Amino acid sequence: MTDDARPGGAIPDSGSPPPWATILIDDSGVVTGWSPQAERLLGRPAAEAVGGPAAELFLPGTGPPVWTLPDGTDEWAGGITVRHRDGRPLHLAAFAHRLRESGTRAQWLLITGFPGGSPLLGEERSLLDWLFTRSPVALTVYDTDLRCVRQNAAMTRLIGIPEEERRGKRLSEILSGSDAEVWERRMRQVLQTGEAAHAGEIHGRVTADPDHDHTFSATASPLEDRYGRMLGVCTTVTDITEQSRSRERLALLNEASDRIGSTLDLTRTAQELADTAIPRLADWVHVDLLETLLHGDEPGPFTGSVALRRVAHQSIRRGTPEAGRQPGDVDIYPAQSPPVRCMATGRSIRQRVTDRATQEWLAQDPIRAKGFRLHQFQAIMGVPIRARGTTLGVTLFLRRTNAPFTDDDRLLAEELVARAAVCLDNARRYLREHTTALTLQQTLLPQTLPPQAAVEVASRYLPAGGRTGVGGDWFDVIPLSGKRVALVVGDVVGHGIHAAATMGRLRTAVRTLADVDLPPDELLTHLDDLVTRLAAEERLTDTQAADLGATCTYAVYDPVSRSCCIARAGHPPPAVVSTDGTVDILDIPAGPPLGLGNLPFEATEIQLPESSLVTLYTDGLLNSREGDVDHGLDLLCRALARPQPSLSALCDHVLEDLLPAGAPADDVALLIARTRTLSDDQIAVLDVPADPEFVSRARSWAQQRLAAWGLEDSAYITELVVSELVTNAIRYAREPIQLRLLRDRTLICEVSDTSSTAPHMRRARLSDEGGRGLLLVAQLTQRWGTRHSREGKTIWCEQMVAEE
């Protein structure tokens, strides 16, 4: 009934049409319920109507004798003529529905409209028809004994039992599982309290799908008459199985992220995978890896039987009684067995034990077949363990229930195994190589060489063969201000992880020192001090300190002046190939190796024509053939003299000529750079007098140059930058002062003077009239800085320009 039919229900304002009237009539024809709308419609108060015969309400032959309809007839609809209290007849449309209770008693709910027939009644009838036939919400009406009175079509589809079979039955008779009894107690509580309840989640199996567990969300609402008498319970049920499974899968994956791969221990990682999958995914899991991988070999094609080593397993049973083999044991799988086919194809398999492929596999292995029968395994799923394109093994999931593994189970298992596979592969690599290869790849050398306006570069690095381990050779290409570039090649004494770690520290130090634009000889002096301090801090013996030593060549090339300034620290001399093909070994002071301390380094500056080749290398390139260093230098000159189509091809050619077949005895680093120059139309220079009035002329000059270069979009920022830098130079420095603009992929603005005092960016106070110049430059440009020379300093800044 509606709320208006209950005691205290609200009566609509007289200004609005009343809703339909509801009347309750029992199966003996006595009125048991009377809504306020019925009182308004027929003029009879409830006290007068309730308890009286229903036949007195209708004109003879016009009333619906619903209380006399035979059993099995639960609905009636049609026209009726009722008698108003004042005696006048009312012709109405009506609908009646039988509300069954326990035993043979019943109640008829009569819904009638307004004089002349109410359109609301027709709409309500349509609503009821929709509710019981087409509503997507599964609904069931129970009597006070919690036996089914009525269910709609959605409930029939949900549980797979027709309404005729459900009538008179309890929920526990059609839904298997303990949750059904819990929900019945909750519905009984609704009958007692009259308050609606929500069950949360109910788990069980239904006739429509007897092989799978389902999860339902249910609500129960009380059905009462006018006087508060409880007539039954109405429940709505929603199948949330997929949502529940999705939450469980997400929770399992979150747990796997935290649980699997906590260490680089291969066995522990495999056990973490097995533990995570039990019991939510399978009853038994075991993880097997290829025996060849555990010995450090890479897998080959899967032909014939395959040996797999049991690494981990887990069961829902205490003590893992299903374990026919223990971790560490080797198992031989036939070529056509599901696990081998799974690894060979790289795809997961899902099978029942009764499938032909599984039966053929078990027939070849009586011991395994006996274990399957003993432990009543019914379903099997195999997922290949693959990481970085390599098959490592297979994980088998087994269930005892008749429910097969679903496609969602497969996706979940693949995700778990994929996460574990990466961890297993990392652990395998760690055990096999002790992270040496990873150290080489990640920290020894730059992975890519950035493009430079000053040079085109190509490089090669070959680690030493045999048991010497990874060495400390390195190379680098470092961009500097003013389109200049630094070329570095170095070699740390010794081999192994310690040498590689030292190389990483030195390479980082070189980059840091290069960032402040130190000249090559000064940079090597600072690097020498660093090596000396490292030896002192680590309290190394003389022998260990010697192992910490290193050699290095550091060169700076300027594409504007075509000058190259080079300094060496005990390293082999660089070679230069001129445009005519002539090869020269540069006579540059060798300098002491790094780490000796208190010895000077000298820098040599040479002029290089455009397209000259500068070759830097480590001594492993010269010592790879029998003979002395001079012989190696002669071979290098011959190899460099032969023209090649590219720098990359030239690097390969040099290695082929100087290295023996196979791995070299020592690490080899090779760096070849082809010089480039900036053309005159990419450079603009203006001499600036120490006159503040010249600042405006400098801005105009810069604007004109940018217009000639087609960079009008950068004119505004450049004018501001020029104004600030030139003003600072005029105010704080001495002549000569020079403004220079360089155009390439970026636009560089430089102001040089003879002062050695470097400016510092600071935050000006509100009362300060100046002090914001460098802050403005830093905000408007991508990079800025200061470099010192023997003649003074240069303040530079760089900004991006739109590509043509």
Q: Briefly, what is this?
A:
The protein is of the alpha+beta class and 804 residues long. 32% of the residues lie in helices and 28% in strands.
Based on CA atoms alone, the radius of gyration comes out at 45 Å
Strand content: 25-35%
Q: Helical content, roughly?
A: 25-40%
Uncertain segments of ≥5 residues (pLDDT<50)? 1-18, 114-121, 437-441, 764-770
The chain-level mean pLDDT equals 80
Helix count equals 22
Give the termini distance in whole angstroms: 78 Å
Instruction: State the major sheet.
Output: 6 strands, antiparallel
Strand segment tally: 32
Morphology call: elongated
- Structural class call reads alpha+beta
Describe this structure in words.
There is one protein chain. By secondary structure, this protein is an alpha+beta fold. The chain is built from 22 helices and 32 strands. The strands form six sheets. Strands 6, 7, 8, 9, 10 and 11 form a six-stranded antiparallel sheet that branches. Helix 7 (about 240-260) runs parallel beside helix 13, helix 8 runs antiparallel to helix 13 (about 405-435) and helix 14 (about 435-445) packs parallel to helix 15 (about 495-515). The longest helix is centred in the middle third of the chain and has 27 residues, at about 405-435. The chain is elongated. The two termini are about 80 Å apart. Mean pLDDT is about 80; it is low at about 1-20, about 115-120, about 435-440 and about 765-770.
